[in-house]
């Protein structure tokens, strides 16, 4: 780093000595708050240090003199070359028990995370007395940072373009004079901020001469960033306030010989953070492995977690701790260098874990993820040996904390990216990435999830260099999407909140000021806040009696609070509220009867009782309140939100705030569209939907971020890189070869999985997809009414439907392959991760197969370009110009039909069996000739089979063949011959292989991208998993019988070949 004794610094210091200290320090310090100069912090901090150490003259700095100093003297020196692009936001927030405080991050890595960590330590119960005084001092310094940022008009997560190594754009002299005042405070300023000057004393630098021989990165000024000049306090290094707070706490603990205790407390906090937040998203798919063995005596301090998803993948998480020894001597900018034997002990531990994982049946691969803890020092690790084929990845705990705030599966995405990085490195490509794995992850996302540049082959002796540019965009995105901060409740307590709508399907809603309280969620309570100018509106739910399911309570609460934001906006706009008011309404569901017990004919107990409770108003819904929602009109919503807004207005009026509104006006503005509904209590009842709605998780959709790598890997495997052609013959040959390659990989995986386990897993996921589809259809009118002002609702719904359809097709294809390829009695359990991997492969195979067919039919141009990296896309002009507009129009009609049929959901009916129908004599004769069954017999047997699912209340049934025949016979489905014909017609045949076309079938009958396939499980929904055992799905049966009969009506022979036998090649 920069030393003040360097020749350049000595020359600049001599020039600076001619200027007044106060003016020079304040002006240089204020430049550190300019967003456009964020990337130039090294030059600016150097100038501040030189000004503090040397300025003693009578000249006043101006724009010309600063240009000379920063652009000429320092700009043409090696100091400017040390600058890098900004890697994080300029200003972030620290949440305290007095609210949010803004903090300048400067060039300190994760400055806000470690500062927040210090305040978490200071808030711990039972903290030692010597830290009580330190807490007040740290808070006082943080208030100065907050005041500077607000004087400059900056907000949390602000970031602006800035250019490293470039000439600085210095403001004019008048602006500089005004700017310099932002870092200066007098006693009156301190008093207005609630700061005592005594609390700032530990941070005031008195010995300015000490800076004439120092390293700027760990100088005394970074510990004491305030100068007291002429009775005024000048914050000389605004972006060192976070590091100063860290220094103070470390110094106090060392003085009390408690530094190791501080390290232990921080280690515990960080370990719990990793377990409870960092690895939370893995809990569903990963399980801890009970592996214990003694670690070497000499090893880097750590905690470890070993996880597996039972697909053969092991994740070894090592949280490395910093005991903090020597931190005051070396500073926070230096790496911790452990003794060689401690690092070797760490490598030995990884080797032991890797060997244990390899000893497990089905082991495929594993990784060690190092999480760097501590207070911000980096850790230097250099391993002399590392286990073969075992991944090694690194994340500072600050980045893990930031990454896993995001909704979805950010950690799984990160690990997928790391696996791809390991793959390209194992192929020989040399990756030069000095800025860590998050930088590569940012590059991967920015590069459309491609693991290397298109133009570079993935092979030996190829160098791929990454600049540091990719950390800022991803950190900015993660910070803005979650927007974590502290929000004040009516009781005056500040709660940490995050954006509730960050993963909304609708673009504008993702930035809505609607937040959820993290502490309340952890404690099992639904509570959130809408933040509008002048008002924080809190909405909570009391469902302690679990009178309705938690998932339903969440759906209602989240819908209500999202809808309320428009009403709160009206209140905010109606009057200028000087000091932000926090009001709260709690909805109590405790007295509600389950929705099945609601009596829509009764007028009793359909209201609510509102009473004051602590600092809020509680609206306690009466037992039969949900009866207000059992009709098409939004009577219940109007009633409920009317009381919510009446309570809000009453709380404001009790504080002397007149809005000029009444709750009826607000409700009328919200419900200008009668289609707006939040709670749907349908009278119509579909027994089959009930079976699948009782499943406990949302459907997983296609992981499209893996598609580029799946393509790159296969193109490299088949040596197709850097191939370009516009020949139809060559294009089809290459595409068919790719399909064959994927098919072979899919078959290899499925041959190791148990048939029943795999089919059941696919059934469960199909049911979740169908439940999602039904829910979207049933709420289409409400969704259109509520969200049309935020986004193109039909387009969003169509994208969702497209994802559902593709995943459903992939799952059905896996079932069809499993019938022919998966072992009956042996094989591994089909874990969710294995099924996910299969779905990814099948999805890409389908995409390429469809492209090949499009080229063959002339529907798409025969263009194929495979990049040197192996990535490729095919020509899809016709698909884009013809198919997508057609599908959009078709879906639009379907969506409008769902809107129009909303009223029907409130008719009293129960659908548990198909309605009767009239038979067609001609069709019956043809059907009987082919299958020995009439349409009526098919209908009757199918109805009996479906009824079995309802009687047993099972979405999936397992049948022994003899038991199934006996059950259908006892149920009156027909005689044994008819039932046997039915099973033959509706069961998928178990062939010698999926691509075995004996029995009169051909390639068109299995290829999932083809239409009207005779070997589709839609056409044959009874799935044999053993020679004498079947699985049936209520959803697939219901859908499949109609599909089968439609094919038969189209005249397609279902048991005889209709064209020559084909193959993948």
Q: Supply Rg.
A: 34 Å
Number of strands: 30
Averaged pLDDT: 89
Helix content: 40-55%
**Strand order within the widest beta sheet:** 15-16-17-18-19-20-22-21
Q: What general outline do the C-alpha atoms trace?
A: globular
Describe this structure as you would to a colleague.
The protein has 1065 residues and is of the alpha/beta class. The chain has five domains: 7-255, no CATH class; 259-404; 483-676, no CATH class; 687-907, no CATH class; 921-1049, no CATH class. It is built from 36 helices and 30 strands. The strands form nine sheets. It has an eight-stranded mixed β-sheet. Strands 6-7-8-10-12 form a five-stranded mixed β-sheet, with helices on both faces. β21 (608-613) and β22 form a beta hairpin. α7 (130-151) packs antiparallel against α12 (241-255), α26 packs antiparallel against α30 (832-856) and α29 (793-821) crosses α30 (832-856). The longest helix is centred in the last third of the chain and has 29 residues, at 793-821.
Q: Notable features of this structure?
A:
1065 residues; five-stranded mixed beta sheet; disordered C terminus; alpha/beta; eight-stranded mixed beta sheet; 5 domains
Summarize the structure.
The chain has 36 helices and 30 strands.
What is this structure's SSE topology?
Elements: H1 7-16, H2 21-31, H3 41-54, H4 63-73, H5 78-81, E1 91-96, E2 99-104, H6 111-122, H7 130-151, H8 173-180, E3 184-185, H9 187-193, H10 197-200, H11 220-223, E4 226-229, E5 232-235, H12 241-255, H13 259-278, E6 287-288, E7 302-308, E8 313-320, H14 327-330, E9 336-337, H15 340-358, E10 365-372, E11 379-380, E12 390-396, H16 397-403, H17 410-426, E13 430-433, H18 437-446, E14 463-466, H19 471-482, E15 485-488, E16 494-499, E17 514-517, H20 518-522, E18 526-532, E19 535-542, H21 550-574, E20 581-588, E21 608-613, E22 616-621, H22 635-653, H23 663-670, E23 684-686, H24 687-693, H25 707-717, E24 723-725, H26 728-750, H27 755-778, H28 780-787, H29 793-821, H30 832-856, E25 864-866, E26 872-874, H31 877-900, E27 909-911, H32 921-931, H33 935-952, E28 956-960, H34 961-970, H35 976-986, E29 1023-1026, E30 1029-1033, H36 1034-1049
Parallel strand pairs: 8-10, 9-11, 10-12, 13-14, 19-20, 20-22, 23-27
Antiparallel strand pairs: 1-2, 3-5, 4-5, 6-7, 7-8, 15-16, 16-17, 17-18, 18-19, 21-22, 24-25, 25-26, 28-30, 29-30
């Amino acid at each position: 780093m920069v030393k003040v004794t360097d020749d350049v610094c000595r020359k600049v210091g001599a020039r600076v000595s001619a200027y007044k200290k106060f003016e020079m320090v304040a002006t240089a310090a204020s430049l550190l708050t300019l967003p456009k100069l964020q990337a130039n912090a090294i030059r600016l901090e150097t100038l501040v240090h030189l000004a503090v150490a040397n300025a003693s003259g009578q000249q006043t700095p101006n724009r010309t003199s600063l240009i000379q100093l920063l652009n000429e003297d320092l700009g043409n020196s090696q100091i400017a070359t040390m600058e890098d692009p900004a890697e994080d936001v300029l200003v972030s927030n620290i949440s305290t028990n007095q609210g949010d405080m803004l903090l300048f991050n400067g060039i300190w890595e994760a400055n806000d995370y470690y500062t927040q960590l210090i305040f978490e330590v200071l808030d711990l119960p039972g903290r030692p007395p010597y830290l009580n005084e330190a807490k007040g001092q740290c808070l006082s310094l943080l208030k100065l940072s907050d005041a500077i940022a607000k004087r400059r008009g900056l907000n949390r997560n602000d970031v602006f373009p800035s250019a490293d190594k470039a000439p600085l754009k210095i403001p004019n002299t008048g602006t500089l004079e005004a700017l310099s005042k932002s870092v200066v405070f007098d006693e009156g300023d301190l008093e207005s901020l609630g700061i005592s000057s005594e609390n700032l004393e530990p941070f005031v630098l008195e010995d300015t001469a000490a800076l004439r021989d120092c390293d700027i990165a760990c100088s005394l000024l970074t510990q004491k960033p305030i100068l007291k000049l002429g009775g005024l306090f000048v914050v000389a290094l605004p972006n060192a306030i976070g590091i100063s707070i860290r220094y103070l706490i470390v110094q106090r603990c060392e003085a009390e010989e408690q530094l190791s205790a501080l390290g232990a407390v921080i280690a515990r906090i960080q370990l719990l953070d990793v377990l409870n937040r960092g690895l939370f998203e893995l809990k569903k798919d990963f399980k801890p492995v009970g592996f214990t063995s003694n670690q070497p005596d000499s090893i880097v301090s750590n905690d470890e977690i070993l996880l597996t998803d039972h697909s053969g993948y092991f994740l070894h998480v090592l949280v490395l701790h910093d005991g903090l020894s020597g931190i005051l001597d070396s500073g926070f900018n230096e790496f911790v260098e452990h003794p060689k034997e401690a690092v070797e002990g760490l490598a030995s531990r990884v080797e032991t874990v890797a060997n244990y994982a390899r000893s497990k049946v089905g082991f495929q691969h594993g990784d060690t993820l190092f999480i760097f803890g501590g207070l911000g020092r980096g850790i230097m690790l250099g391993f002399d040996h590392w286990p073969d084929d075992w991944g090694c990845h690194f994340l500072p705990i600050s980045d893990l904390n930031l990454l896993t705030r995001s909704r979805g599966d950010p950690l799984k995405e990160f690990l997928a990216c790391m696996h791809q990085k390991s793959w390209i490195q194992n192929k020989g490509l040399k990756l030069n990435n000095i800025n860590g794995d998050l930088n590569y992850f940012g590059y991967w996302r920015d590069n459309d999830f491609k693991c290397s540049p298109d133009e570079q082959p993935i092979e030996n002796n190829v160098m791929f260099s990454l600049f540091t540019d990719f950390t800022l965009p991803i950190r900015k995105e993660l910070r803005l999407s979650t927007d974590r901060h502290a929000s004040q409740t009516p009781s005056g307590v500040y709660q940490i909140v995050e954006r509730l709508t960050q993963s909304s399907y609708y673009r504008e809603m993702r930035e809505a000021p609607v937040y959820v309280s993290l502490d309340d969620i952890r404690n099992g309570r639904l509570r959130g806040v809408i933040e509008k100018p002048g008002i924080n509106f809190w909405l909570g739910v009391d469902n302690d009696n679990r009178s309705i399911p938690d998932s339903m309570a969440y759906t209602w609460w989240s819908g209500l609070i999202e809808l309320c934001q428009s009403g709160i906006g009206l209140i905010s706009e109606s009057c200028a509220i000087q000091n932000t008011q926090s009001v709260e309404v709690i909805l109590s569901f405790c007295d509600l009867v389950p929705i099945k017990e609601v009596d829509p004919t009764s007028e009793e107990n359909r209201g609510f009782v509102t009473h004051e409770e602590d600092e809020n108003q509680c609206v306690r819904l009466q037992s039969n309140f949900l009866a207000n929602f059992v009709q098409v009109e939004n009577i219940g919503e109007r009633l409920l939100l009317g009381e919510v807004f009446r309570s809000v207005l009453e709380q404001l009026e009790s504080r002397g705030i007149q809005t000029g509104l009444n709750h009826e006006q607000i409700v009328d503005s919200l419900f200008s569209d009668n289609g707006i509904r939040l709670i749907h209590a349908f009278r119509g009842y579909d027994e089959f939907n009930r079976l699948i709605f009782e499943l406990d998780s949302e459907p997983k959709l296609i992981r499209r971020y893996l598609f580029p790598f799946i393509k790159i890997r296969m193109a490299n495997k088949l040596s197709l890189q850097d191939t370009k052609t516009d020949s139809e013959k060559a294009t089809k040959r290459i595409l068919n070869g790719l399909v064959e390659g994927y098919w072979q990989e899919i078959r290899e995986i499925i041959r190791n999985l148990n048939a029943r386990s795999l089919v059941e897993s696919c059934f469960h996921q199909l049911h979740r997809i169908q439940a999602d589809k039904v829910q979207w259809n049933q709420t289409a009118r409400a969704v259109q009414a509520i969200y049309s002002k935020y986004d193109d609702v039909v387009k969003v719904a169509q994208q969702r439907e497209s994802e559902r359809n593709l995943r459903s097709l992939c799952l059905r294809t896996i079932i069809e392959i499993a019938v022919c390829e998966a072992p009956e009695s042996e094989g591994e359990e089909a874990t969710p991760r294995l099924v996910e991997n299969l779905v990814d492969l099948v999805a890409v195979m389908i995409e390429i197969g469809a492209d090949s067919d499009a080229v063959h039919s002339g529907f798409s141009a025969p263009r194929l370009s495979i990049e040197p990296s192996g990535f490729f896309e095919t020509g899809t002009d016709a698909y884009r110009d013809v198919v997508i507009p057609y599908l959009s129009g078709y879906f639009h009609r379907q969506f409008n039909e769902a809107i129009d049929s909303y009223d029907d959901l409130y008719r009293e009916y129960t659908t548990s069996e198909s309605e009767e129908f009239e038979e067609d004599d001609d069709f019956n004769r043809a059907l009987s000739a082919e299958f020995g069954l009439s349409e009526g017999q098919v209908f009757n047997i199918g109805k009996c089979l479906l009824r079995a699912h309802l009687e047993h209340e099972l979405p999936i049934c397992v049948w022994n063949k003899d038991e199934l025949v006996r059950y259908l016979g006892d149920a009156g489905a027909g005689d044994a011959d008819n039932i046997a014909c039915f099973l033959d017609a509706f069961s998928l045949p178990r062939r010698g292989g999926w691509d075995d076309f004996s029995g009169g079938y051909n390639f068109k009958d299995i290829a999932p991208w083809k239409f009207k396939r005779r070997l589709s499980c839609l056409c044959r929904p009874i799935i044999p998993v053993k020679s004498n055992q079947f699985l049936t799905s209520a959803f697939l049966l219901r859908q499949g019988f109609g599909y089968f009969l439609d094919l038969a009506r189209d005249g397609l022979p279902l048991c005889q070949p209709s064209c020559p036998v084909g193959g993948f090649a």
